[in-house]
Specification:
The protein is an alpha+beta fold. The protein contains 1 helix and 4 strands; from the N terminus they run αββββ. The chain has a 4-stranded antiparallel beta sheet with strand order 1-2-3-4. Strand 3 and strand 4 form a beta hairpin.
Length: about 120
């Protein structure tokens, strides 16, 4: 009986470790995908179409969605990336930009990673 309880305890611990490891992997991938898009956005001209914004923010979906770990379109890919641009935020002559990468979790849950930057004119 004691052995059975110990085995069940170990099995549960392994399940928790496996779940946390998978979540850590997805957070890392999503952070990298968001950072890659931020770096790309920083290289764009201030007036580029992908940086159209407004005071309430304009959402730009990644045209490659869904994307894989390298940001390429793939049928079975699970990541979706978009960015929002706010003009004259936080001050005139700047654009606040957030990039969000999301992916599905178990059940109906969705995980997201969001990174922010500010681009000046």
């Amino acid at each position: 009986v004691v052995l059975a309880i110990a085995v069940l305890g170990v099995a549960h611990a392994l399940t928790v470790v496996s779940t946390n490891r998978a979540l850590s992997y997805h957070i890392t991938v999503a952070s990298n995908l968001a950072q890659d898009k931020l770096e790309e956005i920083k290289r764009l001209a201030y007036t580029h179409g992908d940086l159209n914004g407004s005071s309430v923010g304009i959402t730009h979906p990644d045209l490659n969605n869904p994307i894989n770990e390298t940001g390429q379109n793939e049928i079975d890919a699970i990541y979706n990336r978009s960015w929002i641009v706010w003009t004259n935020t936080p001050i005139n002559g700047t654009k606040a930009i957030s990039v969000t990468v999301s992916w599905p979790s178990t059940g109906d849950a969705t995980h997201t990673v969001t990174l922010y930057t500010i681009k000046r004119q």
